[in-house]
Design a protein that fits this description.
heterodimer; A: two-stranded antiparallel ribbon; 9% strand; B: mainly alpha
Chain lengths: 164, 114
Amino acid sequence: MKSEAKYIVMGVGILAILAALLAFLPIDPSHTDVAFVKLKLATGYTVLALIFLLGFAVLVYIANGRIDLSDLLSETGTNKASMSRFQLLIFTLVIALSLFLVVVSKMEFPPSIPPEILTLLGISASTYAVSKGIQTSGNQTTTTTQAPDGTATTTTTAAKAPGA
Amino acid sequence: MCGTASCMRSLEIAARWELIVLIVAFGAVTLWQLVRAGSFAGLLLANDNKTISPGRIQLLMVTVLTALQYLLATIHDPSQFPTLPPALVAAMGGSQAVYLGTKAWDIFGPKSKN
C-alpha cells in the first residue's frame, strides 16, 4: 500500500470512529442542546486530530528528505546561499509568527495590518526580485561578431555565474 | 461529563497547543535540514567566492537585528502588531539598496569584465 493511501485510510478511520460514537451516544431527545454540544466537541477534536496527522506526515516527509528543502536558500544551479532569499525567508517567517501570536492572543484576526509591516515585506520581496534580475542578466553573455559582408550579428548565450 | 464552557475551553487549549507544537516542530526540522544540506555555506562570500562581501555582511546584520527587534516586541505585547519606527524601515531599504548596488557592481562592474 502506498504511504499516501495509509494517511487517507487513517483519516477515514477517525471519521468512522466519530460516526460510531455519535450513533451510539445515549442522547435524550428532550435535551437537544446537550447533543449539539457533544457534536461540536466531537467535530472539533476530530478536526484537530486530522490537522495533527496531516502536519505530522509533512514533518516526516521533510525530515526523511522526501520533501527537499536544500534549494530553499540557494540559487538554482549553484550551491551558494543567496542573501536575498535568506532575508525574504527571515522576514516572511517573523511576520507570519507575529501574526500567529497576535491571533492566538486575541482569538480574532487583527482589524488592520500596520503599513510599516507591508512596506517592509514589499522592500524584502522587491530586493529578491531585483537580485534575481541582476543574477539572470549576469548569467547571459552578449557577443557581437562581424560577418565578411560587414553585417554585425549579436548573440546572447547563457553562462553559469557563481553566487546569488 | 464536563460542562459546556469548560469542554469548549479544553478544546481551545488543545487547538492552541497543537498549533504551537506543529509550528515549532516545522521550524526545527526545516532549520535542521538547511544546516544538514549546507545551505548556509557561502552566505557572506562575494561573487568571486573568495572574499567576504561587506554588502552581504551589513544586510545580514540589519536583517537579523530588525527581525529580532520585531519578534521580541511581538512577544512582549502580543495583543497587537508592534509598529516599526519609520527610520528603521528606511534603514532597511537603504541596506537592501547597498546590497543590490554591490551585487550589480560585482557582476557588471569593470573588474568582472576583465
